[in-house]
Predict the 3D structure of the following.
Amino acid sequence: MGSYEIFARNRFTTTPYYLAKVISLFAGLTLSIGPLNLRRYFRQYKWLARPNRQLDLMKEARKNRSREYWQGMFEVVYFLLRYLATVLKGATQEPEKLIWHEDLVPPEIIHAMGLVPFCVEAPGIILPELNAELTEYFIDVAENSGYPGDICSLPKSTIGLIMEDQFPPPRAIISSNSPCDGGMASYLPIEQKLNVPVFRLDLPYNFTQPKALEYYEQEVKSMIEFLERRTGKKLDYDRLKEVCEERNRAYEYTLDTWDMIKSRPAPIGSEVLFYSHLCYPLYGGGRISTELMRNICDIARRIISRGGAAIPNEKYRVILWNPPPLIFPEIFIWMEYTYGAIMVMDMITYNRHPFIDTTSKESMLRDLATIMAYGPMARHTRGPVENFFGDLFRIYREFQADMIMMAAHIGCKNTRAVLRMFREYCRRDNIPLLVFDYDLSDTRITSPDGIKRQIADFMDNVMGHSR
Amino acid sequence: MTSYYAGCDIGSTTGKTVIINDAGEVVSSAMIDSTIDPEVTAIEVLSRAIGTVNGLEDMKELDYIVGTGYGRIELSFAHKNISEITCHAAGANSVDPLIRTVIDIGGQDCKAIALGDGGNVIDFVMNDKCAAGTGRFFEAVSRAFQMSLNDFSQLSLDSTKPIPISSQCSVFAESEIISLISQRKKPADIAAGVQLSVAKRLLTLARRIGVKERLTVTGGCAKNVGLIKALREGIDIEVVELPFDAQLIGALGAAILARRDGVQPARRT
């Protein structure tokens, strides 16, 4: 936070401080792309202009959370706005450099080639929290265009957004076969709609085998060749080294933060934890990601140094498996004040991997390939089921958790397929497990109230929580 | 002076109550049809039960009352309300401590509950979205057969060749049943098909939490002998009949929990 941190820390100046930063960000964006372009984007891209629900959420969070923890929410929102500004600026000033990539394809290489990465699933992740109805509209657009109704609603909303021309057009698209067939299949209609070539990274099923990783490394090299052919840009390995070092720096802060969360009570958690880690798929290796991770780490450190906690009455530490319900962003705040339950780690956030060895081209490409192969969801929904459970039970112990919440997303066939084993393993180890049904982005499957009811039943009956 | 504890289970179809004394013995119970107002139902059913206990004249003389069932939130006079899942587990455990799985089939939902060694709930699943496999479904089906629920529950016992009911939805199942009746199929065989179809759905639900011996069925539908027979045929573990009215198990569990919590005086909520 630099010399301005005194403003961020002061309870009276926190909101004006971040407000000033956001205004300054938009002023800079307006100057660089011009007010008319900005106006055009806000008019054309319906998903951009709905910040009100986020503000309500932050007001609600202020009631129970410590001031610093609450500031973490500002940091995350500010990062997302900075990312968005970077994409819009790139799309306006250098549209030939805009590369769409899938959320499980980290953007470091695209970034290092001087191109502008845009994680095409990002709006589908953020929008349900801001405007569930609009998300459902885009889901319907996808289904009406022939995409199957029973697959994950994230690729469905993404397809709907693309069918409605809601993103600036790309020069090329990078996809992969991770984490699921539904996601992979979504790039076919995208390719047909845009008539832009798609490169699909092919991760082998048994990706932990040395030969499989060698194959995947070759896939990454082919992806670079594809991007070079398509954009005329060459991968500058010195630049790649800088990007990888930046990513390593951010990852150091991440690991420090996790270490602090492992102690009771947790200094931060819940959606601050989950959404801050979006910085890796969105802008891994970027300076704004490192800043976010550093600020979140600072916040956690400050809370611990004053003997504080994220919430005043931490009673239950929760591990969340699968993504949280995007349609119900208040879930964590509600759990915190109703039960003193804080989410201390989740499947997506626990993106555990070695630091990138930047000593040579080969080592960087090998480690980037490994990060992709072992990325969250990629490693959980592929290969033997041990990949799925190994992490889960390790995290449960390391983070001193009291319960596991399995978010049984109706569209995720991969994870639903192991629910029975999940229950058996948890029963064997006496781990309280809640499996709640929901859909990631569609309130018509399970409403927020329906999710609340499932959690309340579990807390009352299994955890024996008396309100 | 004897202390009395009451559990009041206000379901969508019936209101039940069980009163126990400080030794944990059941001294009274009652059951009535639910009215539109859960509190009115609860007061009425409690009054009936109190009327049969010597030395009890008024609800206020009860030392502790626990409300359960879907209407529990509305019971302003209860000291505490507890979910029916916990109450059915406690009730079943008090009657048979070896019970590890409870299938509770109520008027508008059904649940499978896994119990730990002490009768605590360790897992549960519920179907509260679909009418198939609930008391309401059986009410609708017995109407289609133009007979009482009790007669319908016996009907399938005479079946020699159950006719499978393919519709999953209770609305379509009812249409399918009417169609079979009009085709002059044997009513007992149609009824057996209905019971089998519901039993399969219930066992699928229960298998999600892992069915462990001993298993019992609670709730109003536990009195449906045709359904219990179909459940027994569908699973290779014993389906235990509890030595207590299965429809009152939730209220009994609530009374037991009332006794547990009522040892220390609490303010009425």
About this structure: The radius of gyration of chain B is 19 Å. Chain B has two domains: 4-88+248-262, 99-241.
